[in-house]
Task: structure prediction
Amino acid sequence: MPSHILVTGAAGFIGHHVAQRLLARGDRVLGLDNLNDYYDPALKQARLRRLEGTPGFRFLRLDLGDREGMAKMFATERFDGVIHLGAQAGVRYSITHPYAYLDSNLAGFGHVLEGCRAQSVAHLVYASSSSVYGGNAKMPFTETDAVDHPVSLYAATKKANELMAHTYSHLYGFPTTGLRFFTVYGPWGRPDMAYHLFVRAILAGEPIQVFNHGDMKRDFTYIDDIAEGVLRVLDRPATPEHEGGVPCRIFNIGNSDPVPLLDFIGCLECALGQVATKQLLPMQPGDVPATYASTTALRDWVGFAPSTPLAQGMAHFVRWYRDYYGA
Result:
């Protein structure tokens, strides 16, 4: 029997792909997004057009920070599950625009939790981030590591979301699962992400900015793997016996294969058939030198973990980029 699923951030990168997967398997989806101008809204509108022609999809333009609007939406709709992917993204942007994160990532998440509580939603799956690990030096990152020292406000809001979700699961008994995403990339990706910026610059013959003089590693995770993981987790809610009586879980979702930044750039150069001019710069505030996901817990829980090779995924992205932008 098809389920009715709320997907927040449905016009965003991950939300768009997750909504497509849900619709393809026969679920009904209410997609919520505020279509803000953090990056070009035309890309969000293009993603949305791909969803709006699909049977079972409806769209609601609404800001997560609108308490009355969110309460009204939850009062008039009934959901079998909620996938909360809407948030203010970006580590560096959080340094210059803190209130965007306080309004969306804290107040907005609180409104989602209150709606789920009022409805006794069967399962809330929400986006956390690898950023919560901050400057942790032990690799790979595991879900049991301490995450008490965030190095950006964005990371702090995501850690706060995990604490808020645990509290609501404890008090009201509905299952919540947080997913710590590791550097998600692929077709329809966000234009503020490094790989997107690099492709644009290389094709334009402009230098790319390489921070920490290239001495960085990232666990790059292909979007199709992310969407698959989200749906598998949605279908298997947390249970009280796994978390000390509270139906609340946290999982890493990454490729578990950190790639040096200069190797990553080489992969891009190969896919583009062009060599990048590199501008070596110091580390940026709020950034971390490396990310590396342990995905043992995720695999044990849902029988799946991301594995798409970077070269394969990046080739898919470059083909999409050239087609979408006519480059």
Notes: The longest strand covers residues 28-33. Residues 237 and 305 are 17 Å apart (CA to CA). The chain has a mean pLDDT of 94.
